[in-house]
């Protein structure tokens, strides 16, 4: 059933529980000359059948030669995979009015979106995001990219999908750790939006496995991202608010060489840091329940191994900074989040050391 739907620029976003057939029926599939699919073997194994059955029910049967499987892993979000998919599309006779249907997490989405953006100067695509992170974040806003050996997301462009289908059914097979990581982006949307959605995010049970029941509130999180994108499609100003929690998160990911934390986990820690920084700047704690919501979803790690100076140095390299000063996104209270250009180093040091102290008490240490 479709629970919510809206338009964002040229995209139609559908949100629901087991709603592929219903959503696809609204997508004017007749417009397209042919359909092509890109996914990963495991994800397609879980969810491909339901999706292809929905296409078949509408008169578009799917055969194996229409499906490209890319390998699992961030390292395959590469120019090599990009080239291979492009050549496969040529071999299959795709043209610029074919539709590329994408079933997968943010890795598949970013790569396939960039393929769609550039194949014959741009073809339409339809995205079914299968991780909570991709549903809340990567599927909305049309940012596409591949990585280079020198860094993540260095090559890409904006190319919005024609339609996005956010369906709770895919979350049933997602590993708990991935669910917890994706939750942090949802929590971020709650913090940005206001007290009610923030509280609703806190109310999501840590061990929830009834994602259909959570879909109405998850849908509101998706709308938060969409509204920010609507106001600032090319990340000039407002969209920087979505970077809440990310300055420390990026430093932490880099410090641990992208091996220890999933992106969302680092974001969770970054959200805590940002809230503590806001408290130091504003004098009051506006974020009851935040520490518990984050910490209860983190894996064990050794916070004593963090070199606080190095971490803070790394925050100064965050690419979102403009004119040499790092813009910190400061959550003063739910729905009251501001951008502060440059925060004094001693204040950052005190806050980080307080965070490390608090985490040392609550996070189990890896053995
Ligand atoms: N374009 C954007 O705006 C944007 C925003 C945020 C993140 N990203 C990008 O997204 C990527 C991360 O995305 P991600 O966290 O979804 O990672 P991912 O795509 O690697 O998925 C995580 C893991 O879950 C598996 N998986 C996916 N769906 C599943 C399901 N339903 N059931 C079981 N397993 C499933 C995947 O195979 C993979 O092993 C990064 O490359 C990041 O740069 C892009
Ligand atoms: Zn993020």
List the helices and strands and how they pair.
Layout: E1 2-8, E2 11-16, H1 20-24, E3 35-39, H2 41-57, E4 67-69, H3 79-91, E5 99-104, H4 106-118, E6 125-129, H5 132-138, E7 143-148, E8 151-158, E9 163-167, H6 176-193, H7 195-202, H8 211-231, H9 246-255, H10 263-282, H11 290-295, H12 308-315, E10 327-333, E11 336-341, H13 345-362
Parallel strand pairs: 2-9, 3-4, 3-5, 5-6, 6-9
Antiparallel strand pairs: 1-2, 7-8, 10-11
Helix pairs in contact: 3-4, 5-6, 6-7, 6-8, 6-10, 9-10, 9-12, 10-13
Q: How is this structure best described in words?
A:
The chain has helices at residues 20-24, 41-57, 79-91, 106-118, 132-138, 176-193, 195-202, 211-231, 246-255, 263-282, 290-295, 308-315, 345-362, and strands spanning 2-8, 11-16, 35-39, 67-69, 99-104, 125-129, 143-148, 151-158, 163-167, 327-333, 336-341. The protein is α/β, with parallel strands linked by helices and 367 residues long. The chain has two domains: 2-173, Rossmann fold (3-Layer(aba) Sandwich); 176-362, Dehydroquinate synthase-like - alpha domain (Dehydroquinate synthase-like, alpha domain, Up-down Bundle), CATH 1.20.1090. The strands form three sheets. Strands 1-2-9-6-5-3-4 form a seven-stranded mixed beta sheet, sandwiched between helices. β3 (35-39), α2 (41-57) and β4 (67-69) form a beta-alpha-beta unit. α3 (79-91) packs across α4, α5 runs parallel beside α6 and α9 crosses α10. It is globular, with a radius of gyration of 21 Å. It binds nicotinamide-adenine-dinucleotide and zinc ion. The site of nicotinamide-adenine-dinucleotide (NAD) has 26 residues, from α2, α4 and α5.
